[in-house]
Amino acid sequence: MKNLQPDQVIKQCQLLIQKGHLSQAAKNLEDMLVENPGHIEGVYCLAVCQRKQQKYNLAMASLDQILIKQPDHGRAHQEQGYTHKAMANTSQAIASFEKAVALNPALFGSWRALADQPGYPMRQEAKKRADWLSSLPPALVSVSSLIYQKQLHRAEWLCRHFLKDNPHQPEAMRLLAELGTKFQILDDAEFLLASCLEFEPNYKRARLDYVHVLHKRQKFNKALEQAKILLDSDPENATFKIGLGNAQQATGDFEAAISTFESVLDSNAANYSIYLTLGHALKTMGRVEDAIQAYRKSYDLKPDFGDAFWSLANLKTYRFTSDERQQMRVQEASATTSINDKIHFCFALGKDLEDSELFDEAFSFYHRGNKLKSEQDKFDSKSLELSFEFQKNNFDAAFFNRHKQTGCSAADPIFIVGLPRAGSTLLEQILSSHSQVDGTMELANIIGLAHRLNGRQATRDTPKYPSILSNITAADLTKMGELYIEETRHHRQGAMFFIDKMPNNFRHIALINLILPNAKIIDARRDALSCCFSGFKQLFGEGQQFSYDLEDIGHYYRSYVELMDHWDKELPGKILRVQYEDVVADLESQVRRILDYCGLPFEQACIDFHTNKRAVRTPSSEQVRQPIYQSGLEQWRNYESHLTPLKKALKS
Questions:
Q1: pTM for the whole thing?
Q2: Angle at the Cα of 590 (from 538 to 635), degrees rounded to 5?
Q3: How many CA atoms lie within 13 A of 633 on its CB side?
């Protein structure tokens, strides 16, 4: 087998194991691993073989080898459960199977083992899950498992292949929609789920996903309607209640959302994740002390729940107790803590150590958390660089002159763009304090439009966007602008203007200018080292993959500045640059400058922005409820000895 690739060896050995030729399979795998040490699938296959040979200690050693590298490897936990079961270690087997299905709910073998375990308290639930999986075509179980293993392209191919022969199979449609969501092709996902529900209106799994996709597309009123339909079908279902609460929160009805989450807890008092969700809603309403209590209750119920600790740290004003510090360190170091929880613990510990001015140790945790996160969310710098270069080379003053009669004439939107942690939330809070301006949130409409224009492309394919902008008709550009105004209307409260504060929209200024030529665009700019390191310290929900590596974030900042310089040259006067440090140094002058650019009269409320009671949904929510302060301007200097990669990237 010397000339075979590792995957080919593994396939042959799987066949040997099925036929009972265990010694030959083990030898072939061991030989392959000499040439390819640590090959995860090879080690996993060897562990299966060793268990079947009743070499349980060797099997456990092989599985430990996998789980040290990949603690979230669901099938390795399942195999660990089988091995414990063979050794009559019942409690350890149950724990391993529970871990396996928590990581990959499509693992039929683990559900079956739990359902067959006498005295297991969740036996009926496990049986329901096993029965559900056994009712599905095997191909769809494989699709689901591949999604949890993040083998998305393989899962999509298998799902589409199945749908060719079974075009209206509801679970296949739901799974393909889930893949569309993973690929950020949300309009495809929405269409598939709507179609699925036309064929199967009582298919609750699909309707729940439909609620989630509508939420992601920021169609919050429609999501609320669907969430109510779902809950009416099963009024005591906690998952459906949570869906309703999330939809209420998204439509701005925070009091109703808080009430819904509290009603869930009345019958599910041990549900740690609901306390976290409740805490987020309370935080958004400015009820910080209540949010703190909710976050604490969350980690009381699940001591290794890193997100609860990170949520406390992310308040920016919270200080941990000595007991909490010890708990975070113990859980972060534990081999049983999931990668996702470890990431949250690292960022929380970094913030706590920074508050204690232990900067070197703080950096070690920030660095570790970022490294783990970057391994999870790979940053595709190449496609972004190609996009930026195309825009600089093709979208110039002459291009926009040729399109000057296109687009929707509405002047309602004020776009705030830039990098995260550059002061965009502060500018939004200042502007939204004006009587003629509605604050909204980080709207995804422009990014969603860019995804639609790009089409259903695999990342390795040549993208259609932004080059496609050269070929869109004037009529279609106008329709796109009108659709943007219509789709964002439900975020508004009736003011003449509204804010779209999605920082990454700086990548789409050509698109914005074509479809909404009268929109205002404000570039929220901050000192490079301050902005980049502040981003590096922040654990974002999604969409900021560039921020988890110092070199990546440095190159990204340079690319952003170069692109904005291009727009300043080709669209003179179109974009107002507002420097964060200038706002801190002279608030009133900068406020007047911003209002003049937007064509708005001066109002004192914009100076007193910190008294604005509006809901704020970003990491800076507590900071913008305080007056301007200068203490955070150059925090990077405390870490300067660690920032050489960032400095080099900014200068290269």
A1: 0.81
A2: 30
A3: 11
